[in-house]
UniProtKB/TrEMBL annotation:
It holds the Pfam family KTI12. NCBIfam families: selen_PSTK_euk. GO terms for molecular function: ATP binding; kinase activity; tRNA binding. Keywords: ATP-binding, Kinase, Nucleotide-binding, Transferase. SUPFAM superfamilies: P-loop containing nucleoside triphosphate hydrolases. This is L-seryl-tRNA(Sec) kinase.
Length: 341
């Protein structure tokens, strides 16, 4: 079989196995280097089709310093990945989405083509990208160095690269486009290692000390990936009544969990604000804004807005919501702390 050969449908040797491996860790912890080395090894030793998607490689440089654009583009990349996965699952060509950032889309396509997963051809006025035989006939693993999640039937696992904060800061300082040191400090205070005992969805997880290259570790990682491929997370059955029942149960549980967690976050934030000697009037305004933010997040959950993954797995919905809330909360807090200065 030649690399890059085109195919129109899935392979004939049984159902294709699909997996998603998420790499977590601080910036400059070595996620990108590890992902590329892992992809190369899996292609050479296992014969798998591997797609390594590095967010920084496909996001336009012009938006790196704009947090609001960064968030939107991250969501846009998730849509691109969904397009690719649905094409693989359905055994059909992938079309370009109508609403897209052209430079980002082209970089995404180039990323997949460079890994022999896509070959492009134009059909009429709409670009169309054919899957290669490699993409549809072998076990396919997507390796992402960011926190993405999908509702498709995939095997899921995560690797957490545990790297000392000072090492990350030193590596980051050597990068052409270094992140502010305070950003990495903030992430270091918030990031949490996988906790399979607490979160069922993190069962297929492995914490790795960075840098990592031992042969024993390679076997451990491969075993984790094989386990994930053999245990895909199933979609909810296509039954409207059952879906609605599951949604209501899941929503109730998530609402309660999120409400309690948001209350704790707001309480801790107010304590920190008092410690920063924020004046009483601004403390009052800060509390009002944070409670308004909390109310909005809970209402979005209650109505099912902007949380498409909520009914898929309870803990994933909670994790994503908390991440979004902390991002919005930090923007508000920074505004009031700036007033104080």
């Amino acid at each position: 079989m030649k690399a890059g050969e085109e195919a129109s449908g899935p392979g004939s040797e049984g159902q294709q196995k699909l997996g998603l491996c998420v790499l977590c860790g601080l910036p400059a912890a070595g996620k990108t280097t590890f992902a590329r080395a892992l992809g190369h090894r899996l292609r050479q030793e296992r014969g798998w089709a591997v797609g390594v998607v590095v967010y920084d490689d496909v996001m336009p440089d012009a938006f790196l310093d704009e947090p609001s654009q960064w968030k939107l583009l991250r969501q846009e990349l998730m849509k691109y990945l969904d397009c690719f996965l649905m094409a693989v699952i359905n055994g059909c060509p992938m079309s370009a989405p109508p609403n897209r950032t052209e430079a980002m889309w082209e970089d995404f396509i180039t990323c997949l083509k460079d890994q022999d997963l896509l070959s492009s051809s134009a059909r009429e006025a709409q670009p169309c990208y054919l899957l290669t035989k490699i993409a549809v006939s072998r076990s396919l693993l997507l390796v992402l160095d960011d926190n993405f999640y999908y509702q498709n039937s995939l095997g899921f696992c995560q690797l957490f690269l545990d790297c000392p904060l000072e090492t990350c800061l030193q590596r980051n300082g050597q990068r052409p486009r270094a992140l502010p040191a305070e950003t990495i400090h903030l992430m270091g205070r918030k990031i949490e290692k996988p906790n399979p005992e607490k979160n069922a969805w993190e069962h297929n997880s492995l914490t790795i000390q960075s840098p990592a290259c031992s042969s024993e570790l390679s076997l451990e990682v491969t075993d984790l990936l094989l386990t994930a491929l053999e245990s895909p997370v199933k979609n909810v059955e296509d039954n409207r009544e059952a879906k609605e029942t599951d949604r209501l149960i899941c929503s109730t549980n998530v609402l309660h969990q999120v409400d309690q967690m948001l209350r704790r976050i707001i309480s801790q934030t107010m304590k920190e604000a008092k410690g920063e000697q924020v004046i009483p009037y601004n403390l009052k305004l800060l509390a009002e804004e944070l409670n308004k933010l909390k109310t909005g997040f809970l209402e979005d959950l209650r109505q099912g807005r902007n949380v498409k993954y909520l009914c898929f797995q309870e803990t994933i919905g909670t994790s994503e919501v908390m991440s979004c809330f902390l991002y919005e909360k930090d923007n508000i807090v920074q505004k009031y702390f700036s007033k104080q200065n």
